[in-house]
Each structure stands twice: as C-alpha cells, then as structure tokens.
Design a protein that fits this description.
Radius of gyration: 20 Å
Shape: globular
CATH topology of the largest domain: D-Maltodextrin-Binding Protein, domain 2
Mean pLDDT: 88
Low-confidence stretches: 1-8, 349-355
Helix content: 40-55%
CATH architecture of the largest domain: 3-Layer(aba) Sandwich
Structural class: alpha/beta
Amino acid sequence: MKNWTFIALIGVLLTIVLFANPAVAEAKVITIKFFNVSDCGDDGNIGMCWTMDEIERITDGNVKFQRFYNASLVKGPEVLSAGKSGLGDFFLTSTNYFPKEMPYHSIFSVPLMGVDPRQVARAALELEMTDPNYQRELKEWNLTWVGQVTASGPITALVTKPVRKLEDWKGVKVRTFGVYFPALLKSWGATPVALAWSETYDAISRGVVDGVMSLSSAMAFAVPQYEVTKFHIETLTGYLAHPIVMNTDKWNSLPENVKALFVALAPSAMEHQARGSIEMKNKALEKYKAEGLEMVPFSDEIEKWHQLALPAVKEVWISQNKDKMPDPGAVWNKYVSLLEKYRAWAFLESYPIAK
C-alpha cells in the first residue's frame, strides 16, 4: 500500500506541472459557486476549504469560488436539488440528509461503522472509485464526483444528566438527526427527539430535551451547547463520509487543466481534512473541560452499548433499502470489509479504544 503522504506529494507536484504554462495567468476568470450548510469552521469542510484556497492560489485568481456558507444559498435538505439544477456548483453531499434519494451513499451516514476520519474516507473513496452504483446515483442527480471524500465527526453527546452505564440512558431525551441515530438511541433506552439545530440550545435550557448528539466540534464552536449541559459522553459513534461533488454541466464546462487540478489536489485535501478533524476534536474536548463539563470516562460499557446499537442500526438500513437494491446485506458487508481494510490508515490515537 502506498504511503498517504507520498500520494499527497504526487498530487501537489502534478498541480505545479499542470499550471506551469504562463498562459494560465491570462485565462478568463472562471467562477464556481460553492455552497454548504456550515462554514470552514466545521471539521467536515476543512479539505474543501483548503482545496478552494489552493486552486485560487495556484491559478492566480483565474479560478474563483463564490462561497455560500451556513445555508445561505439553500438549506441542508435542498442541496441535492440545488446541485442538480445548477443553482449551486460545488458542494459536500451531506449523505445523512438523503437516505431515500441516495440509498447506496446512505451507508456512509450510518453510525458505529468507522472510528477515524482517514479510515472512513478511504473506505468511501474506494467505493466511489470501483463500484458503479455510487457513480450511477450521482449521475441521476446531474452530479460529478471530483475525487475527494470528506469525513465529519466524531459524533458525541452533551447531556444534563450523568450517563455512565446503559441503564442511565433510559428516558433521556436527546436531540439527534437522520434515521440511524434515533435507532441507536432507542436501543439504549433513550428517547430521540427531532429538532432543528438552531432550536436545540433553547430546548435544552428549557428542559424540553436533556441533551444533544452531534458533531463534537459543532457543539463546541458553532453553537455552544456546553453552556446548557453538564456532561460530555463519548459514545464512540464514529465518523460520517461525504463525497465532494460538482454539477455535471459546470464540471463539463471547465478546462481540462482545471478538472485535473481538482483531482490532483484531492489526496492532499483529504489528508488536511483528516488531520484537521482530529485537531478540532481535541480542541473541542479541551473546550468542554475548560468550561467545567464532567468528562465521563471510557469504560467497558461502551462495548455493551455498541453490541445493542449496531444490530438495530443495521436492521433499519437494510429495511430501508430492501426495495432499492438487489442485496443490501452485501452492500453493508462490502463497506464493513473496506473499513477493516483501512483500519491501519487510522490515527491510532484518534480514540482511546479503537478496535
């Protein structure tokens, strides 16, 4: 297996070769509309933001990104339609929003599958590169994959009540998202609650819910959920993968050297994202400690939680997809085998127990 750093270096060298021609500096300015539900402070966006900065730098501003952050163009559930129509050009697919529209890709948003951003991104990358079902789904939405996969996470919980063992989850009302995390929480005896992210802080402060399960960095830096909670619970629910895509008409309109630049930068972008994700996770944990939250320590209870949750989540995913693909069990098993294949790529210090 080639070293990740070596692959990234090759990508950077390719960009230098591709844009060594002085004619590039005289090219017509190309504008690409980037849009997302969050900004560059979100750990899942680190690689994309780096990519845009690098392309603007390497092309000396002849490729520019018009950036729509924090759902300023469209809301999360509307990003696929916006990408298909060309309202926006370049975005992160946010696979957790689209279990029905993108059944194959929906496996990337299943919790408990991978424990590290490198591992998850590499497994998803191989599927995008080798399994035609994934490219077919994107083609149906007039989208082209640009060679990069990002992984957001980890997903953890902030609650107002101490949760140290399985029984402590009983009756705890937790704001979460998607269709798989509710199944996970139910398997533990907790009560999942559907709330908009913007309503969660107030709901916790008023006692409508007892906590929130979401991206660790988002709860620390986007909306300070730690202000209205008391405990940080590391649930080891993992990272979610999201392919980076572009509207196909826009992609086809780009010069070949610009297309090649996106692809050449992808390995370096994924490495920036993975390292940045781990760094943001650690900063979030330090933030929680500094703000006085009790950090519930790891214990053997985690294994018990996972043994209950994974079958529940798998059952939901397979049930949802039994009429959408010939053999959802085989798709599940293929992704699991790739996660195991790329476990060695993980930052081993990513989690205290990564096994």
